[in-house]
Amino acid sequence: MNLFKNKISLLSFLLLLSAVFSSCSRPSPQQEDVEKNNLQYVSCSFSTLRSHGDDTETPGTTDPNTDQDNYEDRIISLRVILFYRGTDRPFFNKKLERAEISSKAIVFSIKKDKPFDMYIIANEDSAQSDFVPFFRNSFTRTELETFRYAPVLTSVTDYGKGILMTACYKNLKLQRTEGKGSRVDPYILDLSAQNREQRPNIKGERKAVELMRNLAKVELILKDLVELMPSSTKENKSFQWAIPYGFHDYKPIVVKFKNYPATTTLFPISELTPSQERREEISETLGRGSFVNYSYVVVPTNWEDISVGGVRTLDYKLSFFVPEAFNSLTQEEKDKPQIVFEYYTNSMSGYEDPKIKSFPLQNGTTPTHYDYIVNQLSEKADWNIYRNRYYKIPVTLTGKGEIIF
Hints:
By secondary structure, the chain is mostly beta strands. It is built from six helices and 24 strands.
C-alpha cells in the first residue's frame, strides 16, 4: 500500500489562547505577544500511506500529489482539529484549502508543555455535503470519533475530488530537537514514535503525519478479456471484447460488488459495522451492449509489445472504492461482501443458460494499516473490508463458460 513520503510541510494554523485563528501573512499584536501568554509555535509535515504494494517496503511513504495515473494521493483540502488532553471540546478546528497548504505559510500555536490530540481529515468534500452541517456546529470528541458519513463510491479515474483520508495522534508532547518555538522558527512536530506504534511493519524514518485512505480499493484483473482490433495502427489503436466461446454471444456479463456498508465512520473505531448498514451493489457491464473502456485496458509500457496484424489479447481492469466493514463471524454467506458475476452460457440444447458466480472478499494474514484498532474487535472475520487495503483479484473466463478466481 504505497505510502507517500516527502512532506508537504505545513506551518499550520495560528491558535491563540482564546482559540482565535489569525492570518499568518502578518503578525497581529496578539501574535507578537504570544510568548508572554505561555504559547509556542509548531509546524508539521504530511505524507499519505500507500494503497499498493508490500506493506514492509522501505521507505513506506510517498509525496502527496505525485500519482499521475489515478491521483489516489491527491490532497485538495485539509482539516486539522486539536484537543488538549482531558478536554471534550476542540480548541482548534480549521479547514485549509489547497492554496493554503501549498503556500507553506501556516502556523499553529499551543500552550507550552500541554499534551494535545490531533485529528486530521483530507478531502472532506469527496463525501459531498455530509460534513458541512457537522463541522459548522459545535461538537465533542466522542461525536467526532463516531461520526458516520456516506462515501461517494466510483471508479478510480472518476475520483476528481480526491479520496477522503484521516490521521489521528493522541497525547502528543513536543520534542524540542528542532526549532525554537517562535513564529519564524517553530518547533517541528516529530511523529516517528507514534507512527512506529501504529504501523510497526512499515520501515524507514517517518516523522510526518501519515494520512490513511478511508476506503479500500478492490481491483479485478480480467485476464485476456480484450484484443487489439485488426484495424489498429501504431498511432491509433483500438480494442474489442475477446469474450471466450462458452459465453452467450448476445448477452452481457454483469459484474457486481455486493453487501458493502452504506456509511462508515470518519475515524476507525473498534466496533462491528451495524447489520442494517448494507448497500446493495456497484456494477459494471462487459461484453454485449457495452464498450471497451480504454482506461481500463492493461497495456504494456512499451506499445511495440502489442503486435499489429496478429491477435493480441490484453487484461481488463475493474476498480472499485468501497468503505470499511467490520463483520460478525455469524454473518450469513449471502450477506458477506462479495464479487458476483451474472452471465449466460450457450447450453447444449441451444437455450440461454443463466449463471451466477460469487467470490467472497478475503483478507489472509497481511497486517492492516491500523491493527492497533482492528485487534481490539470482539470478532474478526476474514471477509472484513479494511480501509486503505488493496484487494487485487485475478479472474479468468474460460472457453467452457466458467469463471475462475
